[in-house]
Design a protein that fits this description.
The chain is of the alpha+beta class. It has two domains: 42 residues; 82 residues, Phosphatidylinositol 3-kinase Catalytic Subunit, Chain A, domain 1 (Ubiquitin-like (UB roll)), CATH 3.10.20. It is built from two helices and four strands; from the N terminus they run H-E-E-H-E-E. A four-stranded mixed beta sheet has the order 2-1-4-3, with helices on one face. A hairpin with a 4-residue loop joins strand 1 and strand 2. The longest helix has 40 residues. The termini are far apart.
């Protein structure tokens, strides 16, 4: 009989804890969802930047005014390629689907869309220019 009387309060306490944690997690997720929608409405987009030669990638938030040069600088820092002996001008950025032609200019020149399976992925490649010889 004593066991039955202890089990019911324990079950109620466990159910109450699950309810509290569930509310806390839901409360944290909702603002994040709203903020991503608001970010898109404000013109902020998320892109993947991949250094495929070393298998590393990072996410970046960009606006239509973000330049490819600034993406190179941010990617170098994020991926650990910001050593002084590596020149930023030796890094080229390509769209994932077209690695033949480096892209230049601003992100607004690309077809920006919300991140998803068809989102924008950029590939950063280190391609040093030939040294000038005299």
């Amino acid at each position: 009989m004593a066991r039955k009387s202890i089990m019911m309060p324990m079950l109620l306490a466990a159910a109450g804890c699950v309810g509290v944690f569930n509310t806390a997690f839901v409360g944290q997720k909702q603002p994040a969802l709203r903020s991503s929608v608001m970010a898109r409405q404000a013109g902020v987009y998320e892109v993947f930047v991949t250094a495929s030669s070393v298998g590393m990638r990072t996410r970046m938030n960009v606006t239509p005014e973000t330049t490819i040069d600034s993406i190179v600088e941010d990617a170098r820092k994020s991926l650990g390629f910001d050593q002084s002996f590596l020149s930023s001008s030796d890094f080229n950025v390509y769209l994932k689907d077209d690695e033949d032609t480096p892209i230049k200019g601003k992100m607004g020149d690309m077809e920006l869309k919300p991140w998803g399976p068809e989102g924008i992925e950029l590939h950063v490649k280190y391609e040093p220019k030939a040294c000038a010889r005299s």
